[in-house]
Amino acid sequence: MAGPIKLSGGPGYRAKVRALGLVAPLLIFIVVTFVAPLGTMLLRSVYDPVVADALPETLELLEDWDGIELPPEAVYAVAAQEVKRAGAERTLGQVASRVNRVQGGLRSVITRTGRELREIQQGPWRESMMTIDSAWADPAIWYAIRTTGERFTARHYWNALDLQSLPDGSVVRQPEDRRIYLRLFWRTLMISGLITLLCLLLGYPIAHLIACSKPSRANLLLILVLVPFWTSLLVRTTAWIVLLQTQGVLNEFLVTIGLIGDDGRLAMIYNMTGTIVAMTHVLLPFMVLPLYSVMNSIPSTQMDAAASLGATPLQAFLRVYWPQSLPGVGAGALLVFILAIGYYITPALVGGSDGQLISNMIAYHMQTSLNWGLAAALGGVLLLIVLLLYAVYERLLGIEKIGLGG
Amino acid sequence: MSTMRPSLGRIAYLGFCTIVFVFLVAPIIVIVPLSFNAEPYFTFTEGMLRLDPDAWSLRWYREIIQNEAWAKSLANSMIIGVSATVLATVLGTVAALGLASSAMPARRAIMGVIISPMVTPVIIAAAGMFFFYSGLGLGQTYISIILAHAALGVPFVVVTVTATLAGYDPNFNNAAASLGAGPWTVFRRVQFPLISPGVISGALFAFAVSFDEVVVMLFMAGVEQRTIPRQMWSGIREQISPAILAVATFLVVFAVLLLLTVSWLKRREEGRA
After folding, report:
1. What secondary structure letter does DSSP report for A70?
2. Residue B93: how many CB atoms within 10 A of its CB?
3. Poorest-confidence range of A98-102, A200-204, B83-87?
4. Chain B: closest CA distance from residue A125 (Å)
5. Residue A274 to residues A128, A241, A244, A267: CA-CA distances in angstroms?
6. I want to staple B150 with a disulfide (CB 3.0 to 4.6 A). Which of A136, B10, B53, B87 is the partner?
7. What are the percentages of helix, strand and coil residues in chain A, rounded to 5?
8. Would you state the pLDDT for residue A10?
9. CA B66, chain centre distance (Å)
10. What are phi and psi of B5, to 5 degrees?
11. Closest by alpha carbon to A289, among A329, A256, A258?
12. The domain at A181-401 falls in which architecture?
């Protein structure tokens, strides 16, 4: 400020501070309301204190356990007391469901043990617990308790990548029939790639047509692209249900004109076809708008010049037009791909069982299986993929150019 | 251009483009007449095709108007949408003024953070917000939903206003300042009126984001906060009835109005530049 002593810089410094001051409120807002929640989720994926809090002394004793023989009576005695206490504090159910995820079937063992131990006041605890359930005679349950007792853990990420850690500390792939998530990530990437390709095939010609039209016609055609862009996603998804379902408009039409029989109605929705068709429709404007804005700056006289120099239309397109439209292709394709791999609503509503993407699995673990750690780890992997693509986009094109239209 | 007779290739090209435009628009248009179906079907009945007046009716419109759940969800959508829009527009516009300054340090990095809500999969954001706000004891409240929607909408404001400011001549500010106007007066009397089309467009974008948002709602809203998209989601998943199509028709009309407003603002802006 205009004090007698100049602290630093000159007008440049003041302008810098002023610009930062203007941006600061929003930056703080985004960090608090958006980045911090993402951080909370990532923390969830590696941090789980429930078992460690419920069975602290048991876990401490288990540190000395060799993992092969059954632990000594002292461990059973401490565990019995802590299981009783967790039962009384109503945290035993959460402990049981976590242990159960390491090895199926242990949930009921632990809850029943908690119930029946209430009647037992003294040892020997090992015998009592083995009588309640023979699972206590198997080192596996102790291994499962020790695994889930780690406060900071990578096991959700192992799970999310179809890996498992063995008692000897090695990490191996899950058995064939339990490899779900990598396949789903792969399928999500494949479907997103296919949708991106479809959007490019459908979007390139119409973006070209709009860019070559007279302004008044171009405006009209742009509006046809922007109507779906502005229309509620749920409305567009509903529209596809109405069109494609078994008793829907398209099937009725095909039956009426006799192209298919009444019993040969096509299953076009509630499966992967439904996801692909509806998502291509939803994301097509995100391809057309960046393509159009790039094509609009390619002078149409260049194609005439190429033709006058003897190029066939195909040659002129491949050698003159296509290379110049590539930034638009890159921007549109990256944007569509980024949006597609994180899509949730459309697959959830029209995807049936084979048209679900990774987002739907995250929602399933958030809302149905309540395995929040795994949901967070799957989210972490998805977030990493998206951020990598986002960085590519920013590198190649600059983030302000992100396609909007409007 | 070289020949008067359109070539086969050109006919194929125009035909293909026509099909793509039909693909884009037809699904949205089809639901409008179907919302006047007298029967609870999702297809054109024979009567509708014969234009039999009895086959057409307003029963689904009556149903949604009389249904309190829809009225309540409209009110919620407006409360949440308007609050989130005001928050996003103020923060976004102020930030865009800073970002437009050539003195702005670390511009790309900051822009990257500000735009990130636009590209982050909403399911991840919604899951994180669910953990975050329930941890703060703000689960299932209006305030957490408004903050969430403002965060999702603000990148659109920043992008739109930044684009408008790129076409703004800073000499206007210098001229006003040289005539004795203070910074606030310059902004209020000179700069803001000139960039206001961009600000309004950004606000409409932010409102549209909130008005159509359902994933955050699924994770964070209770029955009390149900908005129109959340209500539609239940409608599509549980008891799909043509009443949904009546709501959808309203939303299509609303979308067209928004779109025409934004296009008009954009043309005005270009006309002035």
Report:
1. P
2. 26
3. A98-102
4. 38
5. 56, 8, 8, 9
6. B87
7. 75, 0, 25
8. 64
9. 26
10. -80, 125
11. A329
12. Orthogonal Bundle (1.10)
A385 touches chain B (CB under 8 A): no
Q: Which residues of B touch A20 (CB under 8 A)?
A: 98, 104-105
- List chain A domain ranges: 50-153, 181-401
Determine whether B82 is exposed, middle or buried from the number of CB atoms within 10 Å of its CB (0-12, 13-18, 19+): middle
Chain B environment of A390 (Cβ under 8 Å): 112, 116, 119
CB-CB under 8 Å, A26 with B256:
no
Q: Between helices A233-244 and B243-272, what is the axis angle to 10°? A: 130
Interface of A with B in 324-353 (CB under 8 A): 338-339, 341-345, 349
Q: Do A219 and B1 touch (CB under 8 A)?
A: no
Identity at A243, one-letter amino acid code: L
B156 vs A contacts (CB less than 8 Å): 404
pLDDT given for residue A9 in this prediction:
57
> Where do the domains of chain B lie, and which CATH numbers do they carry?
8-55 (no CATH), 69-240 (1.10.3720.10)
Nearest of B200, B256, B253 to residue A226 by alpha carbon: B256
Which residue in the set B1, B31, B108 is minimally distant from A304, CB to CB?
Answer: B1
Residue B167 confidence (pLDDT): 84
Angle at B104 between CA B102 and CA B107, to 5 degrees: 110
The CB density around residue B246, as the number of other CB atoms within 10 Å, is 25
pLDDT at A101 over 60: yes
Residues of B in contact with A34 (CB under 8 A): 116-117, 120, 125, 151
**Average pLDDT, stretch A207-224?**
93
**Token pair of A126 as six digits:** 């090992």
Pick the more confident residue, B124 or A307: B124
Interface touch A249/B9, C-beta < 8 Å: no
Please tell me the distance in Å from A219's CA to the nearest CA on chain B. Answer: 9
> Going residue by residue through chain B (273 aa), what tens digit of pLDDT does each one get?
444 567 888 899 999 999 999 999 999 999 999 999 888 887 888 888 888 888 898 989 998 999 899 999 999 999 999 999 999 999 999 999 999 888 888 888 999 999 999 989 999 999 999 999 999 999 899 999 999 999 999 999 999 999 899 888 888 888 998 999 888 899 899 999 989 999 999 999 999 999 999 999 999 999 899 999 999 999 888 867 788 999 999 999 999 999 999 988 888 877 665
